Amino acid sequence: MAQQEVPMAKSRPTFTIASSGGSPVGDSSSADDAPALQPSELRIGEFAERIADRTGMRRADARAAASAALEVLGDALRSGEEMRLTGLGKIRIVGSKAGEKRRVLTVKVIMDAAKDPLADPGEDV
């Protein structure tokens, strides 16, 4: 299961993609046999740089666009909206826990099997 963390503060949007370490969907091997996916963090600067590289936008413009897009995604998650986003998939909230300073959301992301980040290269998915 993937988790996406979107902070409430607007100054430095970040999100973390993490895995429970289990096997990809449809894989018959046990969770102990599957290599654990190491969570990595993609910060706004690298995110914007990737957008600039793909679109040809200036990095400053890409950063502004990325920040705005992440704010819109954060707002949609806060309001409980289910999202269907090309390139990302279907996202819906499956759990929520409120704390004193923040709310932790557990989201389910359903991606196209051809773009499965947990599948081994060359593996039929």
Structural key phrases:
single chain; 125 residues; three-stranded antiparallel sheet; 2 helices; 26% helix; 23% strand; globular; disordered N terminus
Describe this structure as you would to a colleague.
This protein is 26% helix and 23% strand. The chain has two helices and five strands; from the N terminus they run E-E-H-H-E-E-E. A three-stranded antiparallel sheet has the order 3-4-5, with no helix packed on it. A hairpin with a 4-residue loop joins strand 4 (89-98) and strand 5. Residues 1-13 and 18-31 have low confidence and may be disordered.
Largest sheet: 3 strands, antiparallel
Helix and strand composition category: alpha+beta
Question: How many H/I helical runs?
Answer: 2
- Oligomeric assembly: single chain
The number of distinct β-strands equals: 5
